[in-house]
Amino acid sequence: MIRLLFLLLCALPASAQYPAAQRPWVIAQAFLADTLDPIAGNTGWALQSHGVAETLFTVGRRGEVEPNLATVAVQEGSGWRVTLLPGLRFSDGSVVDAAAVARSLLRALRDNPRAAGGLGATTIEVADATTLLITPERRVGAIAPLLAEFPLVIARHTADGHHFTGPWRVVELRRGDQLRLEANPFYRDRRARPPVIIRRVTDPHALAIGLEAGVFDMAFGLAAESLPRLRDRGIGIASTPVAYQYMLMLNQRHPALRDARVRQALSLAIDRRQLVRLLGGGRPATGLFPDFMPWALETGLPHDPARAAALL
User: Fold this and answer.
1) Which end of the chain, N or C, is surrounded by fewer C-beta atoms within 10 Å?
2) How far is CA 280 from CA 17, 191, 228, 262, 276, in A?
3) Against a cut of 0.85, is the pTM above it?
4) How many domains are there within the chain?
5) Secondary structure (DSSP) of 196-208
């Protein structure tokens, strides 16, 4: 399991027709939101990754749930008291209070099957301006991880569009082509941010060529074989592990794979370090979960062909 996301920072200028103070960062990557309505499929995830939308809670770098738009969730009987950060606003300047959050959550739970599949049928009451009482139909051991799921991004839906709480707000979406963003003036940290253009480019080699030509400032998801060439040109390269899990599930109904010794032998026969070398990046898997998560296995899975043969 290779978990590697390349982020390249290009030293060459892009969008030179703009004044320096207004020149947008041009970011190229393979995926782009198809719509701005988060009830559609994976749109909530895409809008979060674009810096536009947020959830009440989020997941940190080590896989731990952290406060975000909400500060805490406390269990009260079969329900949960969720407290919001005070002073929040949507990107159109309207107030993010408990009533607005309740409307957003209830719409997602009603119209997005992925939202309903996580939190499920739920009663949401407004206790005061910053407090929600959330009671799922079925008991849950912890509600914060469920409120961190991407279908439950907090949004305000009006006749003129969809408004979110992230550090950038949408200027224009050209479906399948590009997303133009500007700094959200109502974002809570009030930091200055440049405008951004996110372009959809699905060919990893085109990403590298665009960086070399100065068309892109940043690019995600490059082909590993292009990295040495980019380094030689002075383009900065950074990589970070991501928490995706791509799992190969064995069919244990197959006569051979019913035997645990056969499954163990298959695992022992795989040289994960060699896979990393051949692919040009990543880290050998230690188990089903990324090794930086607190519950992951600390030691790597061994490669031992002799032991594998002895099991068969």
Assistant:
1) C
2) 36, 37, 10, 29, 6
3) no
4) 3
5) EEEEE---HHHHH
